[in-house]
Design brief:
alpha+beta, nine-stranded mixed β-sheet, 9 helices
Length: 249
């Protein structure tokens, strides 16, 4: 889930993921002292990477792949920016998948183009997993990346003139022990049919081979039980909570 304006209220001892904001503990007290109350929360989780892929994922991935004629595909920069415009397909799927979530705003085409350049242009595309049907239509996507949170701390959040070096180092050379699960989305027609298992069947072996110890999720709505259930066959723990406040006037 995207975090529209969520304020961190639990888990200050943990470093934030790269694309979510961090705030001081007194913010919560300040908001509540002014009479603001909880509207909704987001949760974040730390998922411990197992020594080998859980059999549940590999078994379910095989069944789903055969039953629905689906396959996992890896993409290149040429696929993202070339004639196929895979980057646009990814964000269009995200739009349709997240449209019903609380406070999600549909991304317009011009912003999608900017996001494709800003994110898919620098990501190690081995961490992007596409699930397609036999017609070549995109039905699921999972995007993750090696953590760059500490690299962003070192450069004060500024890529230029020299911050890019720390970020590139964390992404491609001397990685942290964790990686970030940026997002996962599945088309409505394939929702709750096990497509996520195909994505994890692709991501987890890569994480194991790369030596990652744990993964961190981005913020997930506390009511999004379907997403939280994805981690049930792995060792995980909730680490952070974010909150949107409201006040009746």
């Amino acid at each position: 889930d995207f975090d529209p304006e969520g304020m961190l209220i639990e888990g200050y001892e943990h470093i934030s993921t790269a694309f979510l904001r961090h705030n001081h503990p007194y913010y919560k007290d300040h908001m509540e002292a002014m009479g603001f109350e909880k509207e909704i929360d987001w949760l974040e989780f730390k998922i411990h990477i197992p020594e080998k892929l859980p059999e549940k994922y590999s078994r379910l991935a095989a069944v789903v792949s055969e039953r629905f004629k689906l396959h996992v595909r890896k993409i290149t920069k040429k696929d993202v920016f070339g004639k196929e415009k895979a980057g646009l397909k990814i964000f269009n799927l995200i739009n349709s998948t997240y449209a019903s979530l609380y406070n999600y705003t549909i991304l317009p085409d011009d912003l999608i183009v900017k996001y494709v350049k800003a994110y898919l242009g620098v990501l190690d595309l081995r961490y992007v997993s596409l699930v397609e049907n036999e017609k070549g239509e995109l039905v699921g996507v999972g995007i993750s990346m090696p953590s760059i949170a500490r690299a962003l701390q070192k450069c004060g959040g500024k890529l230029f003139p020299f911050g890019w070096f720390h970020v590139a180092k964390s992404m491609y050379f001397k990685r942290e022990e964790n990686f970030e699960l940026l997002l996962i989305g599945v088309a409505d027609a394939y929702r709750n049919k096990g497509v996520h298992a195909m994505i994890f069947n692709d991501i987890i072996p890569l994480a194991i081979s790369e030596g990652f110890k744990w993964a961190e999720t981005n913020a997930e709505l506390e009511t999004n039980h379907n997403v939280q259930a994805l981690w049930d066959c792995m060792d995980y723990e909730q680490t952070k909570r974010r909150r949107v406040y409201q006040k009746k006037i």
